[in-house]
Amino acid sequence: MHATLPLLQETDFPTIKRARLDTLQVNLGYLCNQQCLHCHVNAGPNRKEIMQRDTVDQILKFIEKSKISTLDLTGGAPELNPQFRYLVKQARQMGCTVIDRCNLTVLNEPGQETLAEFLAENGVEIIASLPCYLEENVDAQRGKGVFDSSIKALQTLNDLGYGKAERGRMLNLVYNPQGPSLPPPQCGLENDYRKLLKDNYNIDFNSLFTITNMPIKRFGSTLVSKGQFSDYMDLLKQNSSHDNLSSVMCRNLISIDWQGYLYDCDFNQMLDLPLLVNDKARVHISKLDSEQLTGNDIQVADHCYACIAGQGSSCGGALSE
User: Would the pLDDT of 39 be above 60?
Assistant: First the structure.
């Protein structure tokens, strides 16, 4: 695999200062039941990195001490971590909003037969990856049979009240481009998703999030192999909007890796660009005081242009219309 960090470090991306922390995005490990072409984590079935119980407890202690309002769980497939349900229950008891970044097919895995019901019973918000509404595109990007399995999972979630405005169980979908291009306008694409999924599969959801592919890890390496890396970076820079800087997710969020170490975002985590506190790198969640973060510089490199290009891109989709 081609390393992309050396191609990204020399940057003219503007300085960003951290605002007040309200969200922890926790990567519970790189184990996944899928192996997608666009994956910036390089997750897959053979990854062994998994967060352990003691680190989970340190995170819960920090949530309680720092009055964190949102816990955003990601992976890999976060649900495959044996500590997933424990963490969700404890965080919900503290009044924390919990988001599960779900690849959908994990709901159909052996041993996960009660997962959908667990998520519903605990009021977990679901952000589910469905990179297209066409079977051939999804299977090309994520593997044969993934589309059918995803549709089955969405129908199960709908049966539990997810995606239904009157039930209050949030189900948001995520779109990623198939290759080195920017996502189309989020609003128009959401309308297309809504119509086609409803007409063809009777599926409802709340919102669609469009997310720009990051030029790192598996996707970045593919760009290098195909000689497309420089062109893609030019596309991101030429379409960048500094108006999006005030809304980028890293201003109010920190990312925690499976060992409990801190990063400004999940993408920096994958590039091993650690969060800096008082000029000290490799800070662990057990040693963090949230008051140390406000006003600090966020580590940036050229990949950050993916977050401000076009409509902008964050874990919650487009930043502007």
Answer: no
Total domains in the chain come to 1
- Is 48 within the bounds of a domain? yes
Using a cut of 0.85, tell me whether the model's pTM lies above it. Answer: yes
Instruction: Name the most confidently modeled range: 28-37, 87-96, 218-227.
Output: 87-96
259: tokens are 């060992």
Q: pLDDT value at position 174? A: 93
CA-to-CA dists, residue 247 to 25, 40, 53, 171, angstroms: 16, 21, 33, 22
Q: E-assigned strands of 246-316?
A: 253-256, 262-263
Q: What is the CATH number of the domain that holds 108?
A: 3.20.20.70
Does residue 116 lie within any of the structural domains? yes
**Which residue segment(s) compose the domain that 80 sits in?**
20-214+245-296
